[in-house]
């Protein structure tokens, strides 16, 4: 099946979503719509065909990375102390999609949205805060680099995203 992302709406069925991580399930079901409405992040969902049942989601938000606090290289920061970036704040697939390559597809979808935002407004890095070692390994497999001073945080330069994902 092919999935396409759409912005989260109140009529999406979130009740059946289960990625295996309670914190991610609960955020989607109780906080995602408020974050979207409050403009603190934008949540995109994949639905099951014509139905409104959510099968995957991600949320993105603008952020700043402090080169010194996070321990990123001067080269990655382009000499800036505060580096404009986008945070891939949440990222999850329903357990029914695990192990089928959809995680990579969802990541390309998310990075495509981030790249569009960066082209419109600027932004040098894409940032993720991995929820656990499994998530960290997934992001590293997709060219994200762990930062020195913040456990679980990984970054990717926008230029790497253009090359690695063929986006842009």
Summarize the structure.
The chain has 168 residues and is α+β, with helices and mostly antiparallel strands.
Describe this structure in words.
The structure is a single chain. The chain is α+β, with helices and mostly antiparallel strands and 168 residues long. The protein is 36% helix and 27% strand. The protein contains seven helices and seven strands, in the order E-H-H-E-E-H-H-E-H-E-H-E-E-H. It has helices at 22-30, 32-37, 67-70, 74-77, 102-121, 133-141, 158-165, and strands at 5-7, 42-47, 54-66, 82-93, 125-129, 145-146, 153-157. A seven-stranded mixed β-sheet has the order 1-2-3-4-5-7-6, sandwiched between helices. Helix 5 links the parallel strand 4 (82-93) and strand 5 (125-129). Helix 5 packs across helix 7. It is globular, with a radius of gyration of 16 Å. The mean pLDDT is 91.
Question: What are the salient characteristics of this protein?
Answer:
168 residues; alpha+beta; 7-stranded mixed sheet; 27% strand
């Amino acid at each position: 099946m092919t999935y396409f992302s759409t912005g989260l709406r109140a009529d999406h069925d979130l009740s059946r979503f289960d990625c295996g991580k309670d914190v991610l399930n609960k955020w989607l079901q109780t906080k995602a719509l408020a974050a979207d409405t409050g403009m603190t992040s934008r949540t995109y969902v994949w639905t099951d065909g014509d139905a409104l049942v959510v099968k995957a989601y991600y949320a993105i938000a603008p952020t700043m990375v402090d080169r010194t606090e996070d321990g990123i290289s001067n080269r990655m920061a382009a000499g800036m102390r505060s580096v404009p970036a986008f945070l891939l704040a949440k990222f999850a697939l329903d357990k029914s999609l695990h192990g089928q390559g959809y995680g990579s597809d969802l990541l390309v979808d998310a990075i495509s949205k981030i790249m569009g935002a960066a082209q419109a407004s600027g932004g040098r890095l894409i940032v993720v805060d991995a929820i656990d070692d499994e998530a960290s390994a997934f992001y590293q497999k997709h060219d994200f680099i762990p930062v020195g001073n913040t456990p679980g945080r990984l970054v990717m330069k926008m230029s790497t995203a253009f090359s690695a994902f063929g986006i842009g």
